């Protein structure tokens, strides 16, 4: 992969008007050649879409916006954004939250791993050596997160330390190979299904440590419905395979 690879960071947003300009500045400060941010806004009532448009107007080579008319889940937003990135001939596609929980400073390392190894995807991992979850997390949230990873790996045998992570860098050819547009799961189980498809294709998943930060502005989008879907999805994938 050429050093001048086209890198598109797909950032789904819903009510993130305060966080989005901060994230845009952090990505710009990386000075990484070929890096662009694609904001996928689900008609945020707080005006995040308008903020995104202003960012794109100010830096059209660094920021673009995909407006969607309804909020129908994180997975659907990512599919829309990733599909747009592939249509625009991205070489690398990065999945990243808008809430500043994922450290932008790790992106150059993730890109380097993709460019210099046979890894098909690099996960920004809380659970490899050097990684860390937010210090603000209560013990029960830490326990739930750790249990979710053990649960998913026990069922699907992904052999990934942070199987539920949402901060990832993908080689574009891998995304095409796993046919992202046909993924049915939504919410955070979307991340698991993407990993599962990559593993089933014999693609290698690498992990690099990150410190996951708790959001300081806005509200979490993790609902009971999302948690339930995440619990059921590994079984659906396993039975579908059988």
UniProtKB/TrEMBL annotation:
Please state which protein family the record places this protein in: Belongs to the glycosyltransferase 2 family.
Keywords annotated in UniProt: Glycosyltransferase, Transferase
Q: Please state every residue range assigned to the domain named Glycosyltransferase 2-like.
A: 9-165
List the coiled-coil residues. none
What is the protein name stated in its UniProt record?
Polyprenol monophosphomannose synthase
Is-annotated flag, keyword Phosphoprotein? no
Query: What PANTHER family does the record tag this protein with?
Result: DOLICHOL-PHOSPHATE MANNOSYLTRANSFERASE SUBUNIT 1
Among Pfam families, the record links this protein to:
Glycos_transf_2
Entry keyword annotation includes Transferase: yes
């Amino acid at each position: 992969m050429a050093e001048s690879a086209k890198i598109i960071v797909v950032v789904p947003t819903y009510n993130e008007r305060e966080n989005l300009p901060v994230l845009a500045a952090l990505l710009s400060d990386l000075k990484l050649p070929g890096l662009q941010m694609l904001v996928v806004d689900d008609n945020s009532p707080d005006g995040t879409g308008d903020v995104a448009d202003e960012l794109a107007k100010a830096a059209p080579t660094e920021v673009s916006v995909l407006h969607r008319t309804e909020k129908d889940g994180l997975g659907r937003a990512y599919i829309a954004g990733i599909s747009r990135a592939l249509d625009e001939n991205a070489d690398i596609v990065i999945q990243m939250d808008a809430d500043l929980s994922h450290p932008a400073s790790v992106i150059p390392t993730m890109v380097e791993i993709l460019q210099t190894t046979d890894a098909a995807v690099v996960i920004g991992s809380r659970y490899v050596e050097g990684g860390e979850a937010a210090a603000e997390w209560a013990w029960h949230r830490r326990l739930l997160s750790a249990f979710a990873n053990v649960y998913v790996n026990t069922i699907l045998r992904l052999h990934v330390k942070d199987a539920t992570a949402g901060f990832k860098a993908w080689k574009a050819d891998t995304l095409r190979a796993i046919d992202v547009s046909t993924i049915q799961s939504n919410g955070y189980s979307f991340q698991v299904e993407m990993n599962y498809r990559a593993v089933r294709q014999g693609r290698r998943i690498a992990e690099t440590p990150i410190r996951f930060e708790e959001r300081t502005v806005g509200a979490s989008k993790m609902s009971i419905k999302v948690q339930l879907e995440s619990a059921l999805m590994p079984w659906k994938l396993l039975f579908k395979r059988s």
